[in-house]
Amino acid sequence: MILVIDVGNTNMALGVYEKESLLATFRIMTKMPRTSDEYGVLITQILLNRGIEATDLEGSIVASVVPDVMHSLMGALVRYTKTRPMSVGPGMKTGIRIVTEDPRAIGADRIVDAVAAYEKYGGPVLVLDFGTATTYDLITEKGEFAAGITAPGMGISSEALWTQAAKLPKIEIRKPKSILAQETISSMQAGLVYGQIGQTEYIVRKVKEESGLDRLKVVATGGLGRLIAQETEAIDIYDSHLTMEGLRILYEKNRKPAI
Q1: Which among 42, 45, 217, 221 is most buried, taking Cβ atoms within 10 Å?
Q2: Structural domain for 191, as ranges
Protein backbone atom coordinates (compact mmCIF):
# COMPACT_ATOMS: atom_id res chain seq x y z
CA MET A 1 0.00 0.00 0.00
CA ILE A 2 1.08 3.57 -0.64
CA LEU A 3 -0.10 6.91 0.72
CA VAL A 4 -0.61 9.77 -1.74
CA ILE A 5 -1.01 13.38 -0.56
CA ASP A 6 -2.03 16.44 -2.56
CA VAL A 7 -1.33 19.58 -0.50
CA GLY A 8 -3.53 22.40 -1.78
CA ASN A 9 -3.92 25.93 -0.52
CA THR A 10 -7.15 25.09 1.32
CA ASN A 11 -7.06 21.34 2.02
CA MET A 12 -4.81 18.32 1.83
CA ALA A 13 -6.37 15.39 0.01
CA LEU A 14 -4.96 12.01 1.05
CA GLY A 15 -5.53 8.58 -0.43
CA VAL A 16 -4.33 5.03 0.13
CA TYR A 17 -3.72 2.72 -2.83
CA GLU A 18 -3.31 -1.03 -2.98
CA LYS A 19 -1.72 -1.38 -6.41
CA GLU A 20 -4.26 0.41 -8.66
CA SER A 21 -7.19 0.27 -6.23
CA LEU A 22 -8.01 3.35 -4.17
CA LEU A 23 -8.88 1.98 -0.73
CA ALA A 24 -9.58 5.18 1.22
CA THR A 25 -9.61 8.95 0.91
CA PHE A 26 -9.73 11.75 3.48
CA ARG A 27 -9.04 15.47 3.80
CA ILE A 28 -7.18 17.69 6.27
CA MET A 29 -7.21 21.49 6.42
CA THR A 30 -3.97 22.99 5.12
CA LYS A 31 -4.23 26.44 6.68
CA MET A 32 -4.04 25.20 10.28
CA PRO A 33 -0.35 25.14 11.39
CA ARG A 34 0.76 21.77 12.78
CA THR A 35 3.96 20.17 14.04
CA SER A 36 5.28 16.92 12.55
CA ASP A 37 3.95 15.02 15.58
CA GLU A 38 0.49 16.55 15.13
CA TYR A 39 0.46 15.55 11.47
CA GLY A 40 1.75 12.10 12.35
CA VAL A 41 -0.87 11.40 15.01
CA LEU A 42 -3.68 12.82 12.89
CA ILE A 43 -2.77 10.78 9.81
CA THR A 44 -2.18 7.53 11.70
CA GLN A 45 -5.47 7.86 13.59
CA ILE A 46 -7.45 8.54 10.43
CA LEU A 47 -5.79 5.56 8.76
CA LEU A 48 -6.67 3.36 11.74
CA ASN A 49 -10.27 4.51 11.44
CA ARG A 50 -10.19 3.14 7.88
CA GLY A 51 -8.68 -0.14 9.13
CA ILE A 52 -5.17 0.66 7.88
CA GLU A 53 -1.99 0.51 9.96
CA ALA A 54 0.43 3.32 9.08
CA THR A 55 3.36 0.90 9.36
CA ASP A 56 1.79 -1.28 6.63
CA LEU A 57 2.49 1.46 4.06
CA GLU A 58 5.39 0.66 1.76
CA GLY A 59 5.74 4.16 0.36
CA SER A 60 4.34 7.68 0.13
CA ILE A 61 4.36 10.59 -2.31
CA VAL A 62 3.48 14.27 -1.84
CA ALA A 63 2.61 17.06 -4.29
CA SER A 64 2.45 20.47 -2.64
CA VAL A 65 1.81 24.08 -3.58
CA VAL A 66 2.29 25.17 0.05
CA PRO A 67 6.02 25.08 0.91
CA ASP A 68 5.49 26.12 4.55
CA VAL A 69 3.91 22.79 5.54
CA MET A 70 6.42 20.50 3.86
CA HIS A 71 9.03 20.25 6.61
CA SER A 72 6.49 19.15 9.23
CA LEU A 73 4.54 16.91 6.87
CA MET A 74 7.56 15.09 5.43
CA GLY A 75 8.97 14.63 8.92
CA ALA A 76 5.68 13.11 10.04
CA LEU A 77 5.67 10.64 7.16
CA VAL A 78 9.22 9.53 7.90
CA ARG A 79 8.61 9.16 11.63
CA TYR A 80 5.09 7.71 11.72
CA THR A 81 4.80 5.69 8.50
CA LYS A 82 8.47 4.64 8.28
CA THR A 83 8.47 5.52 4.59
CA ARG A 84 10.83 7.73 2.58
CA PRO A 85 8.31 10.06 0.94
CA MET A 86 8.77 11.24 -2.63
CA SER A 87 8.11 14.90 -3.37
CA VAL A 88 6.85 15.93 -6.81
CA GLY A 89 9.29 18.40 -8.30
CA PRO A 90 12.21 18.92 -10.70
CA GLY A 91 14.14 15.78 -11.53
CA MET A 92 11.16 13.43 -11.16
CA LYS A 93 10.28 11.15 -14.07
CA THR A 94 6.86 12.25 -15.31
CA GLY A 95 6.51 11.28 -18.96
CA ILE A 96 5.47 14.91 -19.57
CA ARG A 97 7.77 17.49 -21.17
CA ILE A 98 7.09 21.06 -20.07
CA VAL A 99 7.63 23.44 -23.00
CA THR A 100 6.35 26.66 -21.41
CA GLU A 101 8.70 29.64 -20.92
CA ASP A 102 9.41 28.85 -17.26
CA PRO A 103 8.94 25.12 -16.56
CA ARG A 104 9.90 25.46 -12.88
CA ALA A 105 6.97 27.82 -12.32
CA ILE A 106 4.42 25.10 -13.07
CA GLY A 107 2.81 23.94 -9.82
CA ALA A 108 3.25 20.35 -8.67
CA ASP A 109 -0.52 19.81 -8.63
CA ARG A 110 -0.79 20.80 -12.29
CA ILE A 111 2.01 18.42 -13.27
CA VAL A 112 0.30 15.60 -11.40
CA ASP A 113 -3.05 16.29 -13.11
CA ALA A 114 -1.31 16.47 -16.50
CA VAL A 115 0.40 13.12 -15.95
CA ALA A 116 -2.85 11.43 -14.93
CA ALA A 117 -4.91 12.88 -17.77
CA TYR A 118 -2.30 12.01 -20.40
CA GLU A 119 -1.78 8.47 -19.07
CA LYS A 120 -5.50 7.74 -18.68
CA TYR A 121 -7.05 9.57 -21.62
CA GLY A 122 -4.19 10.27 -24.03
CA GLY A 123 -3.41 13.50 -25.80
CA PRO A 124 -4.18 16.10 -26.81
CA VAL A 125 -6.05 16.81 -23.60
CA LEU A 126 -7.10 19.95 -21.74
CA VAL A 127 -7.10 19.46 -17.96
CA LEU A 128 -9.42 21.62 -15.86
CA ASP A 129 -8.97 21.70 -12.09
CA PHE A 130 -11.66 23.52 -10.11
CA GLY A 131 -9.84 24.13 -6.83
CA THR A 132 -8.71 27.21 -4.93
CA ALA A 133 -7.76 28.46 -8.39
CA THR A 134 -9.42 27.27 -11.59
CA THR A 135 -6.73 26.06 -13.97
CA TYR A 136 -6.76 24.97 -17.61
CA ASP A 137 -3.67 23.06 -18.85
CA LEU A 138 -3.04 21.91 -22.41
CA ILE A 139 -1.13 18.66 -22.99
CA THR A 140 -0.30 17.80 -26.60
CA GLU A 141 -0.49 14.44 -28.35
CA LYS A 142 3.28 14.09 -27.76
CA GLY A 143 2.90 14.62 -24.02
CA GLU A 144 4.07 18.23 -23.98
CA PHE A 145 2.73 20.62 -21.35
CA ALA A 146 2.19 23.41 -23.84
CA ALA A 147 0.12 26.10 -22.08
CA GLY A 148 -1.73 26.92 -18.90
CA ILE A 149 -4.46 29.37 -17.91
CA THR A 150 -5.12 30.38 -14.28
CA ALA A 151 -8.27 32.05 -12.95
CA PRO A 152 -9.69 32.65 -9.47
CA GLY A 153 -11.63 29.67 -8.17
CA MET A 154 -15.28 29.97 -7.21
CA GLY A 155 -14.38 29.79 -3.52
CA ILE A 156 -11.99 32.74 -3.83
CA SER A 157 -14.55 34.70 -5.84
CA SER A 158 -17.26 33.99 -3.28
CA GLU A 159 -14.98 35.02 -0.41
CA ALA A 160 -14.11 38.25 -2.21
CA LEU A 161 -17.80 39.12 -2.44
CA TRP A 162 -18.70 38.64 1.22
CA THR A 163 -15.46 40.05 2.66
CA GLN A 164 -15.26 43.11 0.41
CA ALA A 165 -18.94 44.03 0.18
CA ALA A 166 -20.41 44.83 3.60
CA LYS A 167 -23.99 43.79 2.83
CA LEU A 168 -23.24 40.52 1.04
CA PRO A 169 -23.38 37.29 3.12
CA LYS A 170 -21.25 34.17 3.09
CA ILE A 171 -23.06 31.61 0.94
CA GLU A 172 -23.05 27.98 -0.15
CA ILE A 173 -21.81 27.59 -3.72
CA ARG A 174 -24.51 25.75 -5.64
CA LYS A 175 -26.63 26.21 -8.73
CA PRO A 176 -29.75 28.29 -7.99
CA LYS A 177 -33.16 27.29 -9.36
CA SER A 178 -32.97 30.04 -11.96
CA ILE A 179 -30.47 32.56 -13.26
CA LEU A 180 -33.28 35.11 -12.87
CA ALA A 181 -32.46 35.65 -9.19
CA GLN A 182 -34.80 37.73 -7.05
CA GLU A 183 -32.92 37.86 -3.75
CA THR A 184 -29.30 38.25 -2.60
CA ILE A 185 -28.18 34.67 -2.01
CA SER A 186 -29.48 33.21 -5.27
CA SER A 187 -28.17 36.32 -7.04
CA MET A 188 -24.65 35.59 -5.79
CA GLN A 189 -25.00 31.87 -6.57
CA ALA A 190 -26.16 32.66 -10.09
CA GLY A 191 -23.23 34.96 -10.71
CA LEU A 192 -20.68 32.49 -9.35
CA VAL A 193 -21.98 29.30 -10.96
CA TYR A 194 -23.21 30.60 -14.30
CA GLY A 195 -20.19 32.89 -14.48
CA GLN A 196 -17.91 29.86 -14.06
CA ILE A 197 -19.84 27.92 -16.70
CA GLY A 198 -19.50 30.82 -19.12
CA GLN A 199 -15.80 31.20 -18.38
CA THR A 200 -15.24 27.48 -18.88
CA GLU A 201 -17.03 27.34 -22.21
CA TYR A 202 -15.26 30.45 -23.53
CA ILE A 203 -11.76 29.37 -22.48
CA VAL A 204 -12.21 25.85 -23.85
CA ARG A 205 -13.46 27.29 -27.14
CA LYS A 206 -10.53 29.76 -27.37
CA VAL A 207 -7.96 27.05 -26.55
CA LYS A 208 -9.34 24.86 -29.33
CA GLU A 209 -9.42 27.81 -31.72
CA GLU A 210 -5.85 29.02 -31.08
CA SER A 211 -4.30 25.54 -30.82
CA GLY A 212 -6.14 24.19 -33.84
CA LEU A 213 -7.07 21.09 -31.82
CA ASP A 214 -10.78 20.75 -32.60
CA ARG A 215 -10.91 17.21 -31.18
CA LEU A 216 -9.21 18.16 -27.94
CA LYS A 217 -10.43 16.01 -25.04
CA VAL A 218 -11.49 18.07 -22.01
CA VAL A 219 -11.09 16.45 -18.58
CA ALA A 220 -12.15 18.14 -15.34
CA THR A 221 -11.40 17.48 -11.69
CA GLY A 222 -11.52 19.33 -8.37
CA GLY A 223 -14.14 19.75 -5.68
CA LEU A 224 -16.48 22.02 -7.64
CA GLY A 225 -15.71 20.44 -10.99
CA ARG A 226 -18.65 18.06 -10.85
CA LEU A 227 -21.10 20.98 -10.49
CA ILE A 228 -19.73 22.66 -13.61
CA ALA A 229 -19.28 19.45 -15.62
CA GLN A 230 -22.99 18.65 -15.16
CA GLU A 231 -23.97 21.99 -16.69
CA THR A 232 -21.88 22.20 -19.85
CA GLU A 233 -21.04 20.08 -22.89
CA ALA A 234 -17.62 21.74 -23.05
CA ILE A 235 -16.33 19.15 -20.54
CA ASP A 236 -16.05 15.57 -21.81
CA ILE A 237 -15.04 13.76 -18.61
CA TYR A 238 -15.22 14.52 -14.89
CA ASP A 239 -12.66 12.51 -12.89
CA SER A 240 -12.88 13.18 -9.15
CA HIS A 241 -9.70 11.22 -8.35
CA LEU A 242 -7.53 12.49 -11.19
CA THR A 243 -4.89 14.05 -8.91
CA MET A 244 -4.61 10.97 -6.72
CA GLU A 245 -4.28 8.80 -9.81
CA GLY A 246 -1.49 11.07 -11.01
CA LEU A 247 0.35 10.69 -7.72
CA ARG A 248 0.03 6.90 -7.89
CA ILE A 249 1.33 6.88 -11.46
CA LEU A 250 4.29 9.11 -10.51
CA TYR A 251 5.12 6.88 -7.57
CA GLU A 252 5.23 3.85 -9.86
CA LYS A 253 7.36 5.70 -12.42
CA ASN A 254 9.91 6.74 -9.80
CA ARG A 255 10.02 3.86 -7.33
CA LYS A 256 13.27 1.98 -7.06
CA PRO A 257 12.96 -1.63 -8.19
CA ALA A 258 13.28 -4.27 -5.48
CA ILE A 259 16.71 -5.86 -5.35
Answers
A1: 221
A2: 97-246
What phi and psi values does residue 79 have, to the nearest 5 degrees? -75, -40
Residues 61-84 have pLDDT tens digits of 999 999 999 999 999 999 999 999
Q: Label residue 45 left, alpha or beta by phi (over 0 means left) and psi (-120 to 50 means alpha).
A: alpha
Does one domain contain both 217 and 153?
yes
Say if residue 81 is in the same domain as residue 200: no
Specify if 224 maps to a domain: yes
50 pLDDT more than 70: yes
pLDDT given for residue 240 in this prediction? 94
User: pLDDT tens-digit profile of 107-128?
Assistant: 999 999 999 999 999 999 999 9
Burial grade of 22 (CB within 10 A; 0-12, 13-18, 19 or more): middle
For the segment 10-37, the average pLDDT, to the nearest whole number, is: 93
Spell 143-163 as b/e; 16+ CB within 10 A means b. Answer: bbbbbbeebebbbbbbeebee
Q: What whole-number distance in Å separates Cα of residue 90 and Cα of residue 106? A: 10
Band of pLDDT at residue 257, cut at 50, 70 and 90: low
pLDDT, residue 91, reads 86
- CA–CA gap between residue 65 and residue 48 (Å, rounded): 27
Of residues 109, 113, 137, 239, which has the active-site annotation?
A: 109
CATH number of the domain residue 68 falls in: 3.30.420.40
Taken in order 127, 132, 133, 134, the sign of the CA dihedral is positive
Active site residue 109: yes
